[in-house]
Amino acid sequence: MRRISTNPVLFRIKDINHDLIDSTHSPAMVLGNAFHNAMEVYYGGSEEHIISNESEAIKLGLEVGLDFIEKYPDGFIGWNSTYQNKQQVMDKFTFAFNAYVKEMPYRTDNITMIEKGLCEKVDVEWRGEQLSLPVPLKGYPDKVIEDDGYLDIVDYKTSTSFPGDDDIDGKKILQAVVYYFLVYAYTGRKPRRCIFEVVKVTKNKDGGPQVKQYFFDYEENDLFFDFFFRFYYDMIRAINGEMVWLPNIEAMFDNEIAMVAYINRLDVPEEVAAQMKAEQVTDITELLKRKIANTSNMNRMMKTVETKFVSGKTLNYKDMNIQDRIKTKMAEHGMLLEFDGVVEGAAVDLYRYTPSIGLKMSRIASYVADVEQVLGVTGVRILTPIPGTTFVGFEVPRSERTWNGAAPKSKALVIPIGTNTYGQVEYINLVDAPHVLVAGTTGGGKSVLVRSILNSLGSTAELWLADPKGVELNDMKSKRYAEDPEDIRAMLESLVIEMDRRYAEMKKTPGLRRYDKKPIVCVVDEFGDFMLANTDGKKKENYDGWTGMRLAKECTKRKLSVEWVSMSRINKQSAIMALEQYDEENRSEYADLSGEDLVVKLAQKARAAAIHLVIATQSPRADIVTGRIKANFPTRIALRTASEIESRIILDAPGAEKLLGKGDALILRSDSPELVRVQSFNV
Question: Which residue has the higher pLDDT, 647 or 261?
Fold first, then answer.
């Protein structure tokens, strides 16, 4: 009936000639069909989806609706400025479906019919007489329920706005009456009313309900049937070849005037003349006013009832496995993911999914907290996408972690750090790195990782160790070891001098681009403590407060002559003057540089001299990991941090605050922006 009214050409092709022809459909229509499919499963299940409780009904309804949109051919959707891709349709569908299940009560015990296709020859009692319609009616009532002994017909509509309370919709009126006769003919019982449940697909600014019910009470509205009968018989006459004007039901009924005029046949001159005479009026306007007055109150045609019922409905995730929990939670937010597989790792398992077309990766990544909530864990990381693949990944912490043993020996300066999610060993090549920053809070596994790196290096490189705490690296075999901040600074100064010496030696060999003898790896543990000591060469010794014995030790430390040592015991003042003169004469050209200056200088130039730095800190603050440090340490390893801010200081990205501790780490390489998660090796 709608097709012959709005598009008689397609009506003849499809319904009379029975030729198969299709064209593009609006995204809104695709959304509406998806919603109907979802509601069919939500209330009744299907052969594929057996529903045992409301939680399953919500989950499966959501999946079916999203799957319908995903599989709908793109070429048959007429995209517009409102809907430009499938993801936008999915978003609106998800919002509408979630709004409906939250606001409307869930009952299945009173349902007598769900999405049943009916094609019936209408031969029923009507107004005290037998009514027999010559052409059968066909339709698909969304739902028929029994309430207080009466049958009610329910039809769902999705819309961007609610109809006005006084609006008259010819299409809805025809649909309501057709459903009335279909259900009546099929069941033998007269339906009481048709309920149109309009679901708004956009959020109300006033925070009001997203679902409105419009009730068409059949007993109170004979006008519906008057309209239907005239349209029905006009349609039959038109099909039989008569010249009959059929109204466009999607455009004509903007107000009650057109409706009343059509029902009372005011478009037929003979009818108008007879009625004007009966009503004793002289013009059609007065006649129309009389007819409107006689239709009772037009507002009775569509009584609006706002549903106040709101429930805290939630999905029952307890019986789902992890992959289904993730998929369903993302579907709640309108994002369709198809599970591909899981890769078991040492600390985390990687769940891989194929995303639907048009789904923005940045949008998926913003739902970490939602996934953690539904899984009941912390430390989830979302990879959008998994590097080198088309998959989206969810790294989920394992309930029982697998701990790595000792690291394998490094090959040259290629250092093993730990195993990634795929169980493969991740390496850092110090030649390419060329310096490494390791940072993380207490308990993150920083010290264990540093010791693992040193053990892996073995005799591959000459180790220079700076250990401000004096307990982390004191048992490591190294010719160069310092604890005191001044001694550490002196060691770094010596390393700069060694760098200069190596450059001078390289100049003697034309074409040599890298120092070809044994490399040096300098490790500065607790770099933050050293930075806060703020050592530099300008600091003067307070010799005056020293005893003769301390002066003697100072002379010995500086490898001064026996005469100087003995002189210090005889004449302290002379010894002090001698020490000051010695310091001035042996003052390095780098004596005025701070500890940070020395580290930066080494980081900038030492690579070609085969000198590499590894600095570690448990205080990844901006005053410790400064901009200069970050710029010269492009390779960074972040263990668990106390906050997202600290993670951003280390990696320029969040994520480290979600790590599990005890060796769970993220690696940022100098040649890739992608973060790689590893479980580090033990000592």
Answer: 647
Contacts of 121 (CB under 8 A, 6+ apart): 133, 136, 185
Q: What percent of the chain has pLDDT over 70?
A: 87
Nearest Cα residue to 307 out of 166, 451, 199: 199
Same fold, 322-397 and 414-538+591-680: no
Q: Which residues contact 464 (CB under 8 A, 6 or more apart)?
A: 478, 480, 491, 495, 520, 521, 522, 523
For the question of whether the overall pTM of this predicted structure is more than 0.70, the answer is: no
Give dist(CA 245, CA 251) in Å, integer: 14
**How many helices (H) and strands (E) in the chain?**
22, 24
pLDDT value at position 92?
A: 93
Report the distance separating Cα 157 and Cα 196, nearest Å. Answer: 7
Q: CA dihedral in degrees (638, 639, 641, 647; nearest 10)?
A: 20
Q: Which residue type, as a one-letter code, is found at position 241?
A: G
Q: Return the number of other C-beta atoms located less than 10 Å from residue 421's C-beta.
A: 22
Q: What integer pLDDT is reported at residue 339 of this predicted model?
A: 93
Q: What residue spans define the domains of the chain? A: 2-306, 322-397, 414-538+591-680, 544-588
Mean pLDDT of 480-503: 89
| Structure token pair of residue 563 | 């005469």
Give, for 340, the enclosing helix (H) or strand (E).
strand 337-344
- Structure-block tokens of residue 112: 């007598």
SS3 307: coil
CATH class of 322-397: alpha beta
State both tokens at 336: 């369709």
* pLDDT reading at 50 higher than 60: yes
For the domain bounded by 414-538+591-680, which CATH number is listed? 3.40.50.300
What DSSP designation does 16 have? I
480-482 vs 462-466, strand pairing mode: parallel
Query: What does the block give as tokens for 390?
Result: 């088309």
